[in-house]
Amino acid sequence: MAVSGDRAVGPSDWAIERFERHAGAVAAAIPVQLAKAHAKAHAAHLAAGLKKRSPYGVTLAGVVHENLAEMARELAEPVRDVRGYEYAVINDHALFPFRYADKPQPLERARLPANVSPTRRRLFRAHGPQSPEGLFEVDGELVTEEYLGLHEAFEELGASTRLVSVFFTADAENGIHVIY
């Protein structure tokens, strides 16, 4: 449960619809888990002693997954392994953490970069929001196995599992800026 001023603010209707009885716990835990992940990633960045930010970004990505998975375990909810990354699954909704910028940016700027891993791209396409109908049907003779594989659900998550993107911005010096 979040606090605004002197009054407690419960989870949104959107969160309750997805996470049901765990909505308050999930809404309260995500900022805490991201802050803890930043602290570890910042320490790794300092320990590496490099000017480049790669130790921070790589560590942050891994620790965010681990922290959200630990949160799911504390709620007695499943954690699923997809190609070496653990995903917290709360009420059939897998949390998909994604740092989309290293400075504060509006959510409208969030994009999967062109060089995102094929696993993350496929995961988002298979379990993410459904895209609107295409402009035309693709003839079955023209469809490749690779195209069909993009839309195939990861069995590790379960075909009915939907993704809930946890978009955020962060950098090594200033920590977490914004979470959506």
Q: How does this structure look, described?
A:
By secondary structure, the chain is an alpha+beta fold. 39% of the residues lie in helices and 22% in strands. It has helices spanning 13-19, 23-48, 54-74, 118-127, 145-150; strands at residues 2-4, 7-9, 79-82, 85-90, 93-101, 162-171, 175-179. A hairpin with a 3-residue loop joins strand 6 and strand 7 (175-179). It is globular and about 45 Å long.
| Share of residues in helices | 25-40%
Number of strands: 7
Low-confidence stretches: 1-5, 131-136
Strand content: 15-25%
Order of helices and strands: EEHHHEEEHHEE
> Overall 3D geometry?
globular
The rounded distance between the terminal residues' Cα atoms is 16 Å
User: How do the strands of the widest beta sheet line up side by side?
Assistant: 3-4-5-6-7
Report the structural category: alpha+beta
DSSP summary: helix tally = 5
What does the main sheet amount to? Answer: 5 strands, mixed
Give the mean pLDDT. 83
Radius of gyration using CA atoms only: 18 Å
Features:
single chain; 5 helices; five-stranded mixed sheet; two-stranded antiparallel ribbon; 7 strands; alpha+beta; disordered N terminus; 180 residues
